[in-house]
Amino acid sequence: MILLFVLCIIAVVGADTGEKEVLSYGLANKIIVVDAGHGGPDPGAVRGKYVEKDITLQVSNKLADYLSQAGALVIMIREDDRDLAEDSSSSRKRSDLKRRVEIANEAGADLYISIHTNADPSSRWSGAQTFYHSGSERSKVTAVMIQEELTRILGNTKRKAKPGTYYILSRTEMPSVIVEMGFISNPREAQQLSEDQYQSRLAYAVFSGIAKSEIRDYDEDIQDYPGW
C-alpha cells in the first residue's frame, strides 16, 4: 500500500525535485556501496577514445550524489583512477575484486551496486541491463526495478534483468546488482555513454530503481509487523 501510494505521488510530481523527495522515503541511513568498475591499470572495455573505467567513475559519482541527497550513507569503492589490488602479480584482478567485496562486507552495507559498461565483438548490440545473484530474491527485486527505470527513463532498451554468476554477486553478504549501462562497442551508445546529460539520466534511473525497491521492502516490513 505504501509503495502504491508513493508511486502515485511520483506520477503526479514528475521527474523533478519533488520526485526525488518522494523517492527519498526508503533511503534514509541506508548504507549503499557504489562500485565504479575497473580502474588504474585495468581500463575495462576500450573502444577508441571511450574507456570503461572513466565512464563508470563519472556515472558512479553522479549516482552517489543522488543517493546522498536522499539520505543514504554512500561508500564509494573508488573515487579516482585506481584499482584495489594489494599486489602486482598475475592474480591482481582477483585481489582487486576480493578487496571490493571486503569493503562492502566489513561496512555491513545494505546494498551493493556495481557500475559497468558492456562490450561485444559485434557493434550491433546495445541497451542497458542489470544482473543479480539467482539465490538472492532481494537482489532480483532491486535489479528488476532498476531495469524498469532504465527502460522508462532512457527509452532505448528492452533488455530484462538476468541472473549472473559474477564474483561480486556471489561473494557479497548483502543484496547486490551489476548495472551494465550499455555497449561501449556500439558507436552510437558509446557516444551517449560519454555525454554528461546522458550519464545523469543513467545515474538517475539507477537511483530511482534503488529507491523504489527500498520503498517496496519497507512496505513489506510494515505489513508483516504484528498489529498492522
Automatic annotation (TrEMBL):
Signal peptide: none annotated. GO terms for molecular function: N-acetylmuramoyl-L-alanine amidase activity. Residues 101-211 form the MurNAc-LAA domain. The keyword Hydrolase applies. GO terms for cellular component: outer membrane-bounded periplasmic space. PANTHER family: N-ACETYLMURAMOYL-L-ALANINE AMIDASE, N-ACETYLMURAMOYL-L-ALANINE AMIDASE AMIC. This is N-acetylmuramoyl-l-alanine amidase. It comes from hydrocarbon metagenome. The lineage of its organism: unclassified sequences, metagenomes, ecological metagenomes.
